[in-house]
Amino acid sequence: MTSELIVFLVLSLAAVAAAFGMVSSRNAVYSALFLVLNFVTVAIFYLLLGAPFIAMSQITVYAGAIMVLFLFVIMLLGAEALAPTNVLPWQRPLAFSLAVVLLIESAYLLISRAQTNALISAPDITVNSMDNLRDMAMTLFHQFLLPFEVTSILLLVAMVGAIVLTKREKAGQK
Amino acid sequence: MVPVDYYIILSAVLFTIGALGVLIRRNPLIIFMSIELMLNAANLAFVAFSRMYDSFNGQIFVFFVIAVAAAEVAVGLALIVEIFKTKKNINIDEMNSLKG
Predict the structure, then answer these.
(1) In this complex, do B75 and A158 lie within 8 Å of one another by their Cβ atoms?
(2) Beta-carbon pairs below 8 A across chains A and B
(3) Nearest CA to A95 among B61, B18, B5, B39?
(4) A102 in a domain, yes or no?
(5) CATH of the domain at A51
(6) Helices marked H in chain A
(7) Given Cys at both, which of A54, A127, B6, B7 links A123, Cβ 3.0 to 4.6 Å?
(8) Which residues in chain A are contacts of B14 at CB distance < 8 A?
(9) CB atoms within 10 A of CB A37
(10) Nearest-CA neighbor of B84 among A29, A157, A74, A24?
(11) Which among B41, B3, B63, B23 has a CA at the least distance from the CA of A39?
């Protein structure tokens, strides 16, 4: 058992435990903090997979910006814990059994289709070099230039949409 | 050396936990977080395959997914805030009519 495998197993245990904590904790603030932990462990997986740029984007955008937005809205609405309701009592066992089916199905399909015995080793020192980042930027700004520009328009539309949705109407208007 | 399959299985497990969260929770904010978890699981599979094929395309796709997730969260949370302003409650069981 190599040290890389041990690191992988410990991290994956932390990621799965954090995900379970997110789904099962009663308080929405705890859920958000568990999700931050999960995002950080996944960022370390990205580092192990030789994607330092994606790992840092994950931490700044997901664990930083998005989760702060979540925490802000949770505290703004006071939605830490909702009163429990029993509208659909049969839903929970059904959801668990469907989740097991989904897990078996997806793992089987992904592994049988990929048909891979490939091993991933930890990245060597070249992944930290400027060349690596330049190669990625070349791919992004040559091959994927149009999607990149469309993404900027998407972000603009989302920004305008969020402002319009939460805008307080003036007293006389409506 | 870690087999690619392990990363794929981890991704499938995280995705399933996210789907389970969408199904069993009643708080729309936690449902939203579960959706983020599912996106994250898909991203992990993308980066693992990107490493396996030694290509940047998977990483670029993850970059786009992160941008789209940020946009989605901004609009979604604005909707939840607006629903709360109208109904004074965000329990998902109460949101069963299109008219406010």
Answers:
(1) yes
(2) 234
(3) B18
(4) yes
(5) 1.20.120.1200
(6) 3-24, 28-48, 52-57, 67-77, 91-114, 130-138, 145-166
(7) A127
(8) 15-16, 19, 38, 42
(9) 17
(10) A74
(11) B41
Structural domain contains residue B86: yes
ipTM: 0.91
Is B84 a domain residue?
Answer: yes
Say how many domains are in chain B. 1
**Contact assessment for residue A36 and residue B44, using Cβ atoms and an 8 Å cutoff:** no
A143 chain-B contacts, CB cut-off 8 A: 57, 60
In this structure, what is the dihedral angle of CA atoms A148, A106, A36, A43, given to the nearest 10 degrees? -60
Residue-level pLDDT, tens digit, chain B, 100 residues: 788 888 888 999 999 999 999 988 888 899 999 999 999 999 999 999 888 888 888 999 999 999 999 999 999 999 888 888 887 777 777 777 776 5
Other C-beta atoms within 10 Å of A127: how many? 16
Distance of alpha carbon A27 from alpha carbon A29, whole angstroms: 5
